[in-house]
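Hey, I'm writing a tutorial for new members on how sequence and structure tokens pair up, and I'd like a real worked example in the thread rather than a made-up one. If someone can provide the structure for the chain below, I'll link this post from the tutorial.
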Amino acid sequence: MKPLSEYTRSALELSEKTTEKLRRSTHAVLAKTEKIRRPSAGVDKKGTAAGGLVSIGLILGGGVWLFLGKTLWALGTIAVGVISFLSNRSHHKRIK
């Protein structure tokens, strides 16, 4: 029968190998997701433009709700539109 310290040593070696494999696979996944998280300049520009149009649409839609007398809906829609617009403007300045 093997001494207990030899079993401990083999378990420790196996654990270290597994930890190293996991570390390498984690770094590989992080490298791949970095590409996904950062779109190309063209896609980023088009997305910002589309977001700006949607936010203006929300502001105008809120104005229509206000005109129709739906004050709560109007204020909510206008607030979301303004927040979206400010966020898009901030992003637009950052990518320039």
